[in-house]
Amino acid sequence: MTDAPASADPIDVLLGVLAIGETGARTSEDIFTASSHPMPGGRVFGGQVLGQSVVAASRTLPPDRAPHSLHGYFLRPGDIAKPLTFSVDRIHDGRSFSRRRIQAFQEGEPIFSGIASFQDDDPGFEHQVSMPDVPGPEELHGPSDLVHDRPEASLLIRMNPIEVRHVGSDIYLSVDKPEPRQAVWTRLRRPIGDDPVLHRAALAYLTDFTIQESVLRAHGVPWSTPGIRTASLDHAIWWHRFGRADEWMLYVQESPSARGGRGLAQGNLFSRDGRLLATVNQEIMLRVPGA
Which of 9, 86, 168, 172 has its CB surrounded by the most CB atoms within 10 Å? Predict the structure, then answer.
C-alpha cells in the first residue's frame, strides 16, 4: 500500500475496491469488475480478492441469505495495475442453502477460484470454543510504536486499513520466542457503516493479514529476513456468527505443520465479548534462503 498518496484515507481506499462494478452482462454467469489498492511490490493482496469475491457472490442472492463458508485457491499473482473481472456461477439454490463459484480474472487468466456457500438464518444446536484470557488491545502497543526507526515500514502501517496489536511481541524485526502460535487484536481503523455484506467482506479481507505469522514465528523467522518469500496458496473461512469488522476482534492463530516449502495456519476470530465469529485455515508457500 505504499504507492497510495500519504494523504489517502486507507478505509476509503478499502471501501473503493470493495465497491465492485456491475456490468449487467450475464450468460451462464454474472460478471463484475473491480480495481485493486496499491501494495508493495505491485502484487494484489489476497485478502482484497477474498473480500471482493464475497461482495460479488452476495450480489446474486437475497440479503437474508448470508455466507457461511468460502473455500478458494490463489492461482496466480495478481497485478495491481490491471483491472479485475469477477464471474459468479449460480451453481445451486436450495430452500436453505445456495452455492456460488467465484473466479477472478486479469487479462483473461484466472488468478483466484473459489466456492462460497450461503444459508438462511436457521435455528439449531449451538456451542463454541472459549476465547483465551489475554490483555485487551488498550493495554498493548501498536506496531507504529515499534518500527518508528524504519520509515518504509511506518508508511506501510499508516496506509493499512487494518489495525493490529500483537499479544506479546510482533515479528516485524525479530522473533523473541519461536513457537507455532500467536494472538493479535485486529479491526478496521474506523467505522464503515452498518451494511452486513460489507462487514462480512471486510472480515474476509482481514483474515488474510497476520495469519501467516504463526508459520514464520514457529521457525523464528521475522518479516525483515533478507530474501524471504511468502504467498497464500489457498484460504478457507467459516463465518459462525455476525460481527462488525470495525470493532476489536481477537485473532488466535496456530500452525500445526510445515513441510516442503509450505506451512499450514489456522485461526479463530473472536468478538470483544467472546463470541466465536469465524474460523480460518490457510496454507502458504514459504521460502527462506538457506532453509
Answer: 86
In the chain, the amino acid numbered 198 is L
Q: What is the pTM of this model?
A: 0.93
Range 157-188 burial, b when 16+ CB lie within 10 A, else e = bebbbbbbbbbebbbbeebeeeebebbbbbbb
Cα atoms in the 13 Å half-sphere on the side-chain side of 99: 6
Looking at residue 227, what is its pLDDT?
92
Residue 122, CB-side half-sphere exposure with 13 Å CA sphere:
11
Domains of the chain by residue range: 10-121+145-287
> At the fourth CATH level, which superfamily is domain 10-121+145-287?
Acyl-CoA thioesterase, double hotdog domain (2.40.160.210)
% of the chain beyond a pLDDT of 70: 92
Strand partners, 74: 112
Sheet hosting strand 109-119, strand order edge to edge: 21-26, 29-34, 84-93, 97-106, 109-119, 66-74, 229-239, 276-287, 262-271, 249-259, 181-188, 162-166
- DSSP states of 169-193: --SSS--SS--SEEEEEEEESS---
**Which residue numbers are catalytic?**
208, 232, 282
Could you give the 3-state DSSP secondary structure of residue 268?
strand
In terms of Cα–Cα distance, which of 192, 3, 149, 153 is closest to 81? 3
So what's the pLDDT on residue 173?
A: 87
C-alpha cell at 173: 524485526
